[in-house]
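This is your field. Have a critical look at the following sequence-structure pair:

***
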Amino acid sequence: MTMYTESQNPTLPYKLGAIPSDICGPNGDFEHALSLMKADGLHYADIEFVWGKKPGFHTDEENERIKALLEQYDIQPAVIGGFAFRDQSAQKIELGDDAYKEHLAEIKAQIELANYLGCKKVRCLTFSKQMAIWGYQGADIRNAYHNQTWPKMLRIFEEPVKLAEAHGIELLIETGVNTLLTSAYLTRKFIEDMGSAHLRILWDPANTLFNHETPFPDAYEELKDLIGHIHIKDGTVDTRKSIITSTNVGEGTLADILPDLADALRKDGYKGVVSLENFYIPPGGSLEDGYRACVKGFKQIFGSGKEQ
């Protein structure tokens, strides 16, 4: 069987994908999700939850089944979407303690799965959100944990990066809503401070809206040379009330931004994957209904975009 190496649209340098568990749910029908992706021309998958388990936590037989289904539906695994260090407080983990060993073992298992599936990218998250990472003139003591969070995070990620380097894997760090790296600036600084060519950014422009970031052109220009993968969704945020609401792609805050972003990715020759990440559940509908609605706008913007 020939796996896809190019986007279905020959005019696009990048490839189109989706997240199966955001179609069928984390406990849903993985095969059905792959069949919908194939029908929609999305031939690259972020492997996150499958049959209720995070990647790296399946049996050998289940991993064989995952691989067989991907091949059956001509879907290439683009990223092993791991969750290591998510919801982990930076203040409650120490190098070498049980929590550290648990997260490290998860990353190692997901790197092994990536190699088994022929995938070269593993997603990793960072610690729980901390509003003030650095403080000065006393705020360092009261608000920023003595400015120790950043150097501590760098130390803790040394071993995961060594594992990625040893196995020829790109470790993708995602810009997240509730993670410590909530902006293009912070994520780029982290990767530059770590200093490894095996660290790249999984950019989710919608996630950084809570940090009052302008995804395009500001954030894109700041990190475009470090992007290893992209997630696309849309929605609205009210930071004062701490509310986030999912919408159809092209109907939220990013409505006027996504077409320009798609155009920039084409002009700049981005060769990675752009994945639809569906959070949207329409009123009275299901997650799959949300996917069916969002995939239309997603393909219209990123599959063709502006007139050439």
Remarks:
- Residues 1-8 have pLDDT under 50 and may be disordered.
- Strands lie at 15-18, 44-47, 76-81, 121-124, 170-174, 199-203, 227-232, 234-238, 243-247, 273-276.
- Residues 24 and 32 are 7 Å apart (CA to CA).
